[in-house]
Write a structure and sequence with these properties.
Blueprint lengths: L10 E5 L8 H14 L4 E5 L6 H16 L7 E4 L6 H11 L5 E5 L6 H9 L2 E7 L2 H4 L3 E3 L6 E4 L1 H17 L4 E7 L6 H18 L2 E4 L5 H6 L17 H16 L5 H7 L1
Parallel strand pairs: 1-4, 1-5, 2-3, 2-4, 5-8, 8-9
Antiparallel strand pairs: 6-7
Helix pairs in contact: 1-2, 4-6
Length: 268
């Protein structure tokens, strides 16, 4: 979509989680590509210059499209190393891309000045987490007997600090969405306890709970070709599992309540 008025500013989506293995980078790629598929002008920034998962995924996508002679919607990509002075590089990149519709930023799974700077710039903060109290401990601590929330944890405090910075800079707010990724079909008691703990903590620290992506082999198989569940004509052995996974992805994007998405979804 074309940039509108001169004062238009890109909506910044930051994927943040200091716990590895939560599906953060996979979620970032699928959000960015889904927005590109919908016709939005999207930029993606990979702040994990060591692993470069998002960058590699999109490079694979470009290579696949070239080899097959097809066109695949994709965001522009930038990789920013995590070192001294790179907070300024991030600021310059955001300034350069300010006229885009969306910028999706994947942060590294560790605390750093660069990750904190990204959080403070976010309009929508997405924190994917496995449906486990190991991952929950990142944002809140629970009583071992009652599973009631005792106190927010360090990442909730980090987000609170980022929200204060954002408010001081431009008066903006950060919409924090916690995604329950890789929901299991078993262990219903744990799922109920997790749901109750998240609902309790969400009221205390101010986030929304959204449905994420299930644990499916398809997500790992798509990476070498850079494909997503929206690239139906290019998927091999398309099955009902793919349909269910694609429905999850659409529900995930819809749950983020991004500007302009409802209009696009209604038209589709």
């Amino acid at each position: 979509m074309q940039a509108g008025a001169a004062e238009k500013r890109a909506h910044i989506i930051v994927l943040g989680n200091e716990k590895g293995g939560s599906g953060k980078s996979t979620t970032a790629v699928h959000i960015a590509v889904a927005l590109a598929h919908a016709g939005f002008d999207v930029g993606a920034i990979d702040l994990d210059a060591r692993q470069r998962t998002v960058a590699r995924y999109l490079e694979n996508r470009t290579a696949f499209a070239k080899a097959k002679g097809v066109t695949l919607p994709a965001p522009a990509i930038a990789v920013i190393p995590d070192g001294e002075g790179d907070v300024d590089i991030l600021a310059d990149q955001l300034l350069e891309w300010r006229g885009r519709d969306f910028i999706v930023i994947d942060t590294p799974g560790r605390d750093s000045a660069l990750a904190r700077a990204a959080l403070a710039k976010s309009d929508t903060l997405v924190t994917p987490m496995n449906d486990s109290f190991v991952d929950f401990d990142l944002i809140g601590q629970v009583d071992p007997d009652s599973f009631k929330v005792k106190r927010p944890s360090f990442y909730s405090e980090l987000v609170w600090d980022a929200r204060k910075v954002r408010g001081r800079v431009d008066g903006g707010t950060v919409d924090w969405v916690v995604l329950r990724n890789r929901l299991a079909n078993l262990d219903a008691r744990n799922m109920r306890r997790m749901a109750a703990a998240l609902a309790e903590l969400s009221k205390r620290v101010g986030f929304r709970v959204g449905a994420g992506l299930s644990e499916r082999v398809i997500f790992r198989e798509l990476f070498p070709r850079g494909l997503t569940l929206l690239d139906i004509p290019h998927l091999e052995d398309f099955s009902l599992s793919h349909v269910a996974a694609r429905a999850e992805l659409r529900a995930l994007i819809g749950g983020l309540a991004l500007p302009g998405w409802e209009t696009v979804a209604a038209a589709a």
